[in-house]
Design a protein that fits this description.
This protein is α/β, with parallel strands linked by helices. It is built from 19 helices and 17 strands. Strand 3, helix 3 and strand 4 form a beta-alpha-beta unit. The protein folds into two domains: about 250 residues, 3-Layer(aba) Sandwich (Rossmann fold), CATH 3.40.50.1480; about 150 residues, Rossmann fold (3-Layer(aba) Sandwich), CATH 3.40.50.720. The structure holds nicotinamide-adenine-dinucleotide. The site of nicotinamide-adenine-dinucleotide has 28 residues, from helix 8, helix 9 and helix 10.
Length: about 450
């Protein structure tokens, strides 16, 4: 969909008049993200990020606004675009522009708008890139290699003559599993040209964001899109990884009659079964499912052969990073007609009269139809992103000496975030006594 936008020198968004609504929503988010507020207060005093250009491609949500506020407090110059055409909250873009963030994008933008927005972020010559899905890193590398395709051409149009920006980047950070997989593959091939901090791989990110964040918000997305009942339904999750297990647990809690997972990995399949979740191949699950959601990070998990056996009225959605998990071209080919029956529901009519409901164009449903992860969860993920940014500024030389690798966020940063979150939530921990410390570190003590 092509959307109407308003443009300024350093922004292109949908509607500036949504500013006040956005500012109120930002306040709401701030009150639920205490760890990030602490970091913001410290950044404001220390100004560690003064003058640093950050190019961020993240879902532009109320939670992201709080990460931007922390960066702003530290003195950074921020260029922000969306990491998905459907995940932008337009009130937040307007509020962020009023705060001095350079924002590009709007909800429902088409592919051209999406890549133009990335072009504007790259044009700012970022010193640090922050990605959710590795799109900025990937495009910077394609530009450097002189590659061309439809998307790169859109970016080049924004950049003009000067399209080689990668040498100014110190390092980056990556938010999601799919991004890490893409970047690790680049590093393994020797193709990665600057170091990336793997935010997604830190316990404070993937133990909470992927499991509880995606778990709750994906169900929220399905409900907001359809208003359907989950109790009594046969609920199928493709992939029982971090995200899949969070979704399955919540579907069970809401009374789904059967919760079924599909898997390719034997340990994970066993874990599902021991959690009380049935495991079967998609071709069997597709026959009995009322609701299906993919969470694999893989391609064409649901294809022609699955659509052919699905029940009339089934709901199909995805929460994996890219919209490739459901083979939509297959569905288009099988259907005789398509009706936009609700904002986020396209109903495909099959030759035999069955109806298959596709949610949110097969894009991550929690961000398309709902608001992404709750603030309380993103407090952890974005505290890590804020501290990763500070780490890059303070350690750019060491990172560069390490070479172009995907590196972990130091354990002490991650543990510190966990301690701060416990403190903010009033969770008190026990402390090891000297005797216990000695016991745990000694090999001399036996039975
Ligand atoms: N919607 C969101 O807000 C959100 C948040 C975090 C992660 N993600 C994305 O969700 C996806 C999954 O992330 P994760 O952290 O759960 O990854 P993960 O690696 O923990 O889990 C993926 C699981 O899918 C299984 N799998 C892979 N291919 C499969 C196939 N063809 N059929 C069945 N199972 C298959 C794997 O064995 C694995 O257990 C990624 O694309 C990630 O980027 C989305």
């Amino acid at each position: 969909m092509t959307i109407q936008t308003v443009k300024g020198e350093n922004y292109e968004i949908k509607d500036l008049s949504l500013k006040n609504e956005g500012l109120k929503t930002m306040e709401w988010a701030a009150s639920r993200m205490p760890v990030l507020q602490l970091i913001k207060e410290r950044f404001a005093k220390e100004k560690t990020l003064k003058g640093v250009r950050i190019g961020a491609c993240l879902h532009v949500t109320k939670e992201t606004s709080q990460l931007c506020e922390a960066w702003l407090a530290g003195g950074a110059e921020i260029y922000l675009c969306a990491s998905n055409p459907l995940s932008t909250q337009d009130d937040i873009t307007a509020a962020l522009v009023s705060k001095g963030v350079h924002v590009f994008g709007g909800k429902f933008m088409d592919s051209e708008g999406y890549y133009r927005a990335i072009g504007h972020v790259i044009k700012s010559r970022p010193q640090i890139t922050i990605d959710d899905g590795a799109d900025v890193v990937s495009i910077l590398h394609k530009l450097k290699r002189g590659e061309t395709d439809e998307e790169i051409e859109i970016v080049r149009e924004v950049l003009g003559e000067d399209s080689d920006m990668i040498d100014e980047v110190w390092a980056g950070a990556e938010e999601t599993t799919t991004g890490i997989i893409r970047l690790q593959a680049m590093a393994d091939d020797g193709a990665l040209l600057y170091p990336i901090m793997a935010t997604n791989s830190s316990p404070c990110k993937n133990m909470f964001d992927n499991v509880y964040g995606t778990g709750q918000s994906s169900i929220d997305g399905i409900l907001r899109a359809t208003a359907d009942l989950i109790a009594s339904k046969v609920f199928v999750v493709a992939g029982y990884g971090q995200c899949g297990r969070g979704i399955a647990t919540r579907a069970k809690g809401m009374g789904a009659r059967r919760v079924i997972a599909t898997e390719i990995e034997p340990h994970t399949a066993l874990q599902a079964v021991m959690d009380g979740v049935e495991v079967m191949p998609m071709i069997e699950a597709a026959k009995i499912a009322d609701i299906i959601i993919t969470a694999t990070g893989c391609k064409h998990v649901i294809s022609k052969e699955h659509f052919e056996v699905m029940k009339d009225g089934v709901t199909v959605s995805n929460t994996g990073h890219f919209n490739v998990e459901i083979n939509i071209p297959d569905l288009e080919q099988l259907a005789t007609d398509k009706i936009q029956i609700r904002t986020f529901v396209e109903q495909f009519i099959m030759k035999d009269g069955r109806k298959i409901n596709l949610l949110g164009e097969g894009r991550l449903i929690n961000l398309a139809a709902a608001e992404g992860h709750p603030c309380e969860i993103m407090d952890l993920s974005f505290a890590l992103q804020a501290l990763a940014t500070e780490y890059i500024v303070k350690h750019k030389k060491e990172l560069s000496d390490l070479g172009s690798k995907v590196v972990q966020i130091p354990e002490e940063i991650d543990t510190n975030v966990a301690y701060l979150k416990c403190k903010a939530m009033g969770i008190e921990l026990d402390i090891l006594t000297q005797e216990q410390e000695k016991y745990l570190s000694s090999w001399r003590v036996g039975t």
